[in-house]
Amino acid sequence: MQLPDGRMVFKTSGNINIYDGAHFRYIHQTPKDVYPLNGYDGFYRIYQAKNSILWIKDHHKLMCVDLRIEKYVPNLDTFFKKKGFEKEVDDLFMDSNQNLWLLISGKLISEDASITIDLSNNNGVLQDLVSHNNNLYLFYNSGEVICYDLKNKNKLYSKAAYSKKEQDFFKNTSLVVKGNKGFYQLRNGSKGGFFFFDIRKRIWTKILETNYTLNTLVINPNDTAYISCSNGIWIIDCKTGKKTYLPTLKKVDGSILNTEISTIFYDKQDGLWLGTYNQGLLYYHPSRYKFTYIGRSYFSESTQKDVIVQAFAEDKLGNVYVKSQSFIYRYNFSPKGDKILKVIEASLVPKELLEKINTINKNQKISLTDNRGWIWTGTQDGLKLFDPKKQKESIFYTKDGLSNNFIHAILEDRNHNIWVTSSYGITKLEVDTINEKIHFTKFTSDVGTLEGEYSDGAVFEASDGTLYFGGINGFNILTAKSKNTNKLPFKAVFTNLFLRGEKIELAKSYDDRVILHEAAPYTKEIALSYDQNFLSFEFSALNYQNPSQTYYRYQLEGIDNHWRETSIGGQNENENTDGILKISYTNLPPGKYKLKVMVSNSNKQWNGLVTNLFVTINAPWWKTTTAYILFIVLLISLIGAAVFGYIYYTRKKLERNHREEVLLIRIKNLIEQCDFLQSEKESYLTQTNLNSTFSTNSNNENKADNAFLTRALELVEKNLEVSDYSVEQLSRDLCMDRTGLYRKLISLLDKSPSLFIRNIRLQKAAALLLEGEYNIAEITEKVGFSSSSYLSKCFQEVYGCRPSEYAEKSRKST
Q: Where are the transmembrane segments (predicted)?
């Protein structure tokens, strides 16, 4: 059978096989997958339900396959009990609307149990059923069809296909196929019979009766019936009643198909599938072979050597002559389809024709100048093209679309297409007149071309437009009436996914992630980790007729700015004729993408159907929204901390500067007060001549303090350039201990010795900056700072600006 997406399903004795045009997928069964179906005595039947479920019944057996997970559904007894069917199911059917019907204890029950029809009053065994409008038609082994109204469950009528005397002839099996005006039925017993029931007239017609079993029936849209049997195939035009019996079938290689055809199927591309008893699966399509092949069996040459077709020519009457290395033949094609090659003596060939053939044979230069002025040259490694106007040369290979790199002949036909023969296959080159883009169409043996090499220069176009291509052991003919096939009926099917070159299996975990939860054809979305971004996608066009004549266009939104087009076999140097598209993307960045794929055959008429596959590459945790929020919060916190620290540091600095300023003001006020009091005391003592002793002691104390500060100042200024002149050294030079020096300076100046030394150095630095004779480095050395940066830091704390700015600010204030 054919699935809605175009894939084929084949049931063999062992497996279910699903075919996508290139690969078979096998679904194996186990004993627990089989349910006893005691009411069914026939052979394999496959039904497809609406939910991608396949029901398969065989002689007394029932199986169920879930295509989405590609597994059998085990324990069907449990499945039926969950549906509410406690009793054993005797038989199972599916009507034309894909509704499931169960036969249980003489009652026919719909899957949802909404309809129950009592069959206990009917005679015989129910073998098949079909629905039409609101009626259900039941087919019994007695040959009767009984029609029921599904609305009220009433029996409307019954009609027998044959008399009771004939029941034993056709009582064993039944196969019903719905036609345009009724139902076709295949029946078997001791005989085989093919019947038609007209639902409007309610009349049975016997179309065919045989003395052997009729295996399978298919009806095409034109009401042509194909019936397989143990000895060939019947082809019956049901409109006219014309019957054709083919007892034997010939395969492409000329051999006879000497086996029983057990199954026949007509697909939606008008192709026939034949399942044989012991020679596998065969496929036939009337338009598959575009090229007529005239093989060596039609030539008179010795069978011990190859036949080399060297040239063609045509006389005024339209007769075509074929020259080999030994003879000249005249080719005729009779109305009966017989291909005839007749040896003609050279003396009987028209003189001008003979000269032409011999000239062609001697001048086998593989070169051509087409109507555009382009020069095509065939080589042993590619096809060269030279454009005289642009003075541009190009060369084409198999990767561009040639069937083979070794070129033997070139021809331009009346439609200005370029035909190229090679060591394997023929290539047609079409040039777009607008953008001069070249489109390649490759033809190989799967469409009828020679299996071997073609001959140098052996190409010819007859007056009626027929093309001839000569080669080893035969030649090909392509008539002007050959037409392209219709559009492909299906959209591309997603068949496989590869991660880092490894094929992804269904329901299997990769890097702790299950990628395919359903089979690839049913998968619409794929979610991957950030490091699972090396991907290859595989799609099938389901072009069973001519897989090598398949074209794809695809686009990954977010990566590709426009559609990309490719032909099968033109993707790389390797021949690929299975019709499968393989797309690879590497190092995809995190994001959401939509992969779109379209298909066409050689006429490049896109059918408008687009296959969409949504792909999500998840970002790593550090690139997720949550991580970004945390990063922003952290950044804000750091900025806040920095601002808080700056404010805190600035406030402390301002407070320290303020304290120093207040201290200086207090010292200044105290000095002024002391000077005032001293002057008042001295004036008072002078006037009164009293307390002379106290006055002398007070003056001595002030003089001693001034002398101490003067001495300390001199010592620091003397050692100003000594960077390691410390508090200890100053205390020794003043003949004091460190503690005493500290207390003395705190009591007099409210400053520590280290701050006293640093301020003197900074005052000297400020003076030198105002002089402007030294740079910062020189001043740093002269005032005893260890580095310019430390000087700058201390200077900025005291003066509120950098040393480089101090002199400029002082001049502006002046």
A: 627-649
Please tell me the distance from the alpha carbon of residue 214 to that of residue 134, in angstroms, as a whole number.
31
Tokens for 131, please give them. Answer: 């629905």
Mean pLDDT of 332-349: 74
472 DSSP assignment: B
Distance in angstroms (rounded) separating the CA atoms of residues 805 and 813: 12
Write the pLDDT tens digit of every residue in 753-766: 888 888 888 888 88
Greatest Cα pair distance in the chain: 172
* pTM of the complete model: 0.69
- Which tokens in the block code for residue 281? 């699966």
Q: Name the DSSP class of 206.
A: E
Q: What's the rounded Cα separation, in Å, for the pair 752 and 741?
A: 9
Burial of 738 from C-beta contacts in 10 A (0-12 / 13-18 / 19+): middle
Q: 3-class secondary structure for 481-521?
A: CCCCCCCCCCCCEEEEEEECCEECCCCCEECCEECCCCCHH
Does 385 have pLDDT greater than 90? Answer: yes
| Under 8 Å between Cβ of 476 and 468 | yes
- The amino acid occupying position 681 is K
| Tens digits of residue pLDDT in 40-86 | 998 889 999 888 899 999 999 999 999 999 999 999 999 999 989 99
**Contacts for 78 with CB less than 8 Å, ≥ 6 apart:** none
Q: How many CB atoms lie within 10 A of CB 549?
A: 27
DSSP class of residue 98 equals -
**What CA–CA distance (Å, rounded) separates 317 from 463?**
10
Q: Which residue has the tokens 């719905």?
A: 178
Residue with tokens 């480095």: 777
Q: Give domain limits for the chain.
A: 1-121, 292-478, 493-623
Helix, coil or strand: residue 662: helix
The CATH architecture one would assign to domain 493-623 is: Sandwich (2.60)
Beta strand pairing status for 116-118 and 107-110?
antiparallel
